[in-house]
Amino acid sequence: MSGITGQFAGTAAIELRALAFSYGETAILRNIGLDLERGRTLALLGPSGCGKTTLLRLLAGLLAPTIGTISIGGRLMADANARLFVPPERRGLGMVFQDYALWPHMSVAGNVAFPLEMAGLGRAEIEHRVMAVLDRVGLAPLAARGPGDLSGGQQQRVAIARAIVGEPGLLLFDEPLSNLDRELREALAVDLAALLSDLGVSAVYVTHDQGEAFTIADQVAVMRGGAIIQCAEPQTLVSAPASVEVAEFLKLGTVVEAERQADGAWQLCGTGIHLAPGSEGPAAAARARIMLGRKAIDVLAPEAADANGQVVRALFRGDSYALSVALGEGAARVVVETVSGLRRTVGEKVGLAIEPGGLRWFPAN
Ligand SMILES: Nc1ncnc2c1ncn2[C@@H]1O[C@H](COP(=O)(O)OP(=O)(O)OP(=O)(O)O)[C@@H](O)[C@H]1O
């Protein structure tokens, strides 16, 4: 699908406006609005079935939107109202598939040359472009090798070289690392992040792996049920999740109901834990939901804290213990996640203290 169209001149890599897609009566994507600056990488992150692949296909031109518009590199590619639709081969895109889809019977140079041959370029031009792009991704010395004789990282570079040889304005990645084991995936994600930043290309990367999205992307769109529920830099998603849904999807901590006492102080429902004076809550509300990040809870000796709980799970993490601690009884029982530098065992009683700075407040249900 690599276009031989040259880099886009516009400033925005992607602009999506009020985008929606349905299969017949079934709505798959709704009201998607999104901007990506040139040279940046966007990850589409969400659980299976949330619509990531469908959105990537709309960008690629393999599907047409039911409502809304898609611009890539400042060029309108699809407008449902105006019945405008630019086909995939004229969108100037490069695509990197799952497992890279390299041809095993062709050399590295042959794989990279393929899109240019399809576009009908002359032999000398193809050779020149292929060597230039292999040089950019650091693979020129391996041009004559077969993909089977390369490491995972080198294969990834061949796939990217093939995707960028036509100088696309936008690279699309469809879960390229999802079939690999965790260690290799993490190493390749770090490599890929560095390569994309060196190349300065604009890219969209579909994944259901949060670690991968945070490593690779400048901006992450968290998707759920066909909508983008927050789109921000990874650091912002963690420090200021827009909703309980985002906080829970990113596993940022435990969400607990809280209520304001007669004296104005806040208590975590069912736990007996009072928040220190000065903890902010929604100004006028009597109830709220609070997300307790792992680092917002200190584990103390039972007699040193005003709230006690019981350890129900303790996982050794090499340098600390990840603990689940149950507080309260019956329907009011809540289990919070925390970390402890000291060894704790299941069944042990511990004291808990809350760091007000580590709390995120959300409106009550
Ligand atoms: N041809 C189709 N007809 C009807 N529904 C479809 C079709 N293709 C996909 N869907 C539905 O659209 C929804 C979104 O699918 P999509 O593949 O975009 O999700 P995804 O987030 O990429 O999931 P995964 O990570 O599992 O690939 C799913 O509920 C899926 O069942």
From TrEMBL:
Residues 14-250 form the ABC transporter domain. GO terms for molecular function: ABC-type ferric iron transporter activity; ATP binding; ATP hydrolysis activity. Keywords: ATP-binding, Cell membrane, Ion transport, Iron, Iron transport, Membrane, Nucleotide-binding, Transport. It comes from the Bacteria. One of its GO terms (biological process) is quaternary ammonium group transport. InterPro entries: AAA+_ATPase, ABC_SmlMolc_Importer, ABC_transporter-like_ATP-bd, ABC_transporter-like_CS, ABC_transpr_FbpC, P-loop_NTPase, Transp-assoc_OB_typ2. Signal peptide: none annotated. The keyword ATP-binding applies. Pfam families: ABC_tran (PF00005), TOBE_2 (PF08402). SUPFAM superfamilies: P-loop containing nucleoside triphosphate hydrolases (SSF52540). GO terms for cellular component: ATP-binding cassette (ABC) transporter complex. Belongs to the ABC transporter superfamily. This is Fe3+/spermidine/putrescine ABC transporter ATP-binding protein. It comes from Mesorhizobium hungaricum.
